[in-house]
Amino acid sequence: MNQFFKHIITLIITMLPLYLLAQNNYNFSGVVVNKETKEQIGLVAIQLTELNRWTTSNLNGEFNFDNIPEGRYTIQASCLGFERHEGVVVINRNVEKYKLSMLASSLGLDEITVVARENTSLSSSSTIENAAIEHSQPTSLTDIMQLVPGQITLTPDLSKANQITIRDINTYSGEDRTRQANANDALGTAIIIDGTPMDNDANMQSLNTTTLGQSDEFSTAGGGIDLRQIPTDHIESVEVIRGIPSVQYGDLTSGAVLIKTKSGKTPFKGKVKADPKIKQAAISKGILLKGENKGAVNFELDFTHSYDDLREPARSYKRLNGQFGYSNTLFKTHNPLSINFKGNYFHTIDNEKKDPDQRQLERQREKESGLDVKLYGKWSLQKWWVGNLTYNFSTSLKQQDFYSYHLNSTSATPLPTTYIAGEYAVDILTPEYYSELTVDGKPYSYFATIKLDSRFKLGNMSNAIMYGIDWRESGNNGKGRQYDLSRPPGNAITTRPRAFKDIPASKKLALFAEDRISLPLGNNTLETQIGIRYNNFLPKGIFFTNGFTSFEPRINFAYHISQNLTIRGGFGKTSKTPTMLHMYPDAAYIDKISFNYYPPDSPDLIVATTEIIEDTGNPDLKPMTNNKYELGADFNIYGINFILTGFREKIRNGFGWENQYFVMNYRKWDDLGKGFLPAFENGEITYEVNGEMMTLGWDQETEFEGYMSPKNNYSVDKKGVEYVVNFGRINPIKTELMVDGAYYHIKRSRHAVPVVERITSSYKGDYFPYLAVLPGNSGTISQRLNSNFRTITHIPELKMIFSLNLQTIWINKSESFWENSSGSPVAYTRGENNDKLYGQFPAGEIIYVDPVGFYDMDMQYYEWQDNYSYEAPYSTMVEKQDDDFYDTESYPVNWQLNLKLTKEFGKFAKLSFFAYNVFNHRPLYKSNRSGYFRLNQIAYFGADLTFSL
Predict the structure, then answer these.
(1) Largest CB tally within 10 Å, which of 286, 450, 629, 758?
(2) Which domains does the chain have, with CATH numbers?
(3) What pLDDT shows up at residue 157?
């Protein structure tokens, strides 16, 4: 049987090149011109889609393809500053003078798109072209994302980190579990610029993981990319993949955002933008170098200044960004090779000063700068076994500096100076002092990928094969946390200064292969994309590892029943590896006072016992995974286009932090009266009485102590429907009507692992002797149904576009849950006879949740018995919640009207204006939990002016 398969494979390999050679091949050449001015256009990217053949026009606009098989092909052309061209060309002889006409981008064109365009071939995704980006007047990438179905319009805000989540309800709260869940969604969203994924894995800018876990006070460490560092003026297009991505995209769970930056000839542009909180200025230029094969250079410079609140400008944000690019295509007439070099530098300053009327000296500053360098391109080899070779090599270097000067208040806290466990005579921190903290991070990342693709036909079946390898490495060479041990920050008491450069680098290897198949079935066509991705985290070799390996199968299909109906769907698995913050958390230092003696007229003596947990990591930490399912339909009824996508996602092993407890035994010396001079020597406390040295007695103290450790303790279940309905253009009023939106149902929960909690109350004058083990699987359920009713009025004669968006949120509600693995509630109230009424929560009644077990001081585990709920001391471990814990917070139907206007003045100026919540519609709402507040953001407006020379 094995020999039979060998013969078959040999036959296919032998016959395939003969099949290709047997066809009639022709030359295809032509010229690209400006349709209006008839000027020739250089550096235009031209592609024959079905063959995956491409080239670039020379400075005279000329292009050439050789050895083109006879057939009918789709020809596409794109160039910065021009509208994308798509047409059909029939090759049945040599074609030498084909004229390809392109229109310069302008609001004077008959058709222009200023909304996201849905890609309806396979996986659900949205493409946002440059015209739509400019009309949206973005300050950061989060503003562009508002064009994606399911997103809502938010006021631009650079005072805090901007992060992207896909298919999510962005409702942040102070609850730790909600913040962590959103951090996981942002971490699982890949931001890919010109084929290079941005990396945040080596960001270690944290304060103290042993008590705070993943702190988001000043950093996105352990989470997603802070998008404020990406200016939007150098972006040519954005594609948002919400569904099942190609296997070439990895280390993600939620989806991917693909950003293409500008390359090629552009006029000199200057832009100024202003709104109540943000001021921005930018300049850019693209130059064609003189001479054949010299290429083009681009540069862009951007400065942005933002205040959190102009009335109290205590917190500000500044960004300086510069980008340089060089692009060229060699060997244009035969086997073209594209070369793109991009260098990007950014510098940001995040300042915060406290209210001068309160603490005049307190201040906080965060600075970050970075340099990204990449070389990427494509080589058209056109061999029978490979069509194109795509390459990408990039390096990212960053400098992260955090500084704070804060007032700390303590009470009888040992000075945390020792690095060795044991008993020590120590000093006590002063009750109030100022501390200085510096966190120095120098994260770096390397990325390299090689991809090969090939296209061939077997009978009527067309195959487009892609396979490749990528390598990622990230680390941090920073000095880490630095502060004076005698004046430590208040939140660093349980840890010590730490150098990030001592932490091992994170390395990832991936192999991937994919086949995109097109198969005619009578008058219908079935398209299928099948791929597999192999991941190796911390590899020792290709198939050996110090970490873990995984396989990710992905499949998408689209069945084109007719021109007016397509059914599509798919399944795929994606995963995201832990960040360095999760892999290498801080060591824990537990300091307990064993003896304190500080009489007013004698020297002090304080003895502390220090317990050290060097490794607070989790050896069982796994990658976060997501199983994605999709089913959709694209159809047209009486000229109205419908795009519907139903989806379901199951995110497991999300990253979080939980307390790990242990039993700490230490000596507690007896109290000593006044008038003595005690000394701590050789592990004992001695004092003199009438000339005789005495040894002070002690007792053994035992109590539970803990530290936070990373854990796969979050899961998210998402389901919903996304929709786009395009009613087309009403020509008499030059207006296009469309509706888009989504229904999301998101269930965030702790993983089905019980949670251990320490009881802080005492029992019989001593520490509580048990650790409660509460049931897991608690969290929130959020639902939202929204619609964006869009009208886009385009008047080419005036070179003006005016768009309105009536944003309506029909359903917006959330509720808490706490249930067992079978979905039954674990919470109850008590009836008249003290019986437990599970799932019944009348107003005014306390809600109870029983533990599933507990640990004693010997760390012996005991299962919970029903009678423990009423017996001391066990009843102390029963969790109690207010009567509104399970109340559903349901907000009324809410709307706001947003408008945007763009007007061109000749070829040299463009004015844009936006206004969010034009009528300042902010109804008052009473929450059952937090009282009265107003829905919607306040009316917000801004404008920008662009000059072109």
Answers:
(1) 286
(2) 2-102 (2.60.40.10), 110-670+700-725 (2.40.170)
(3) 86
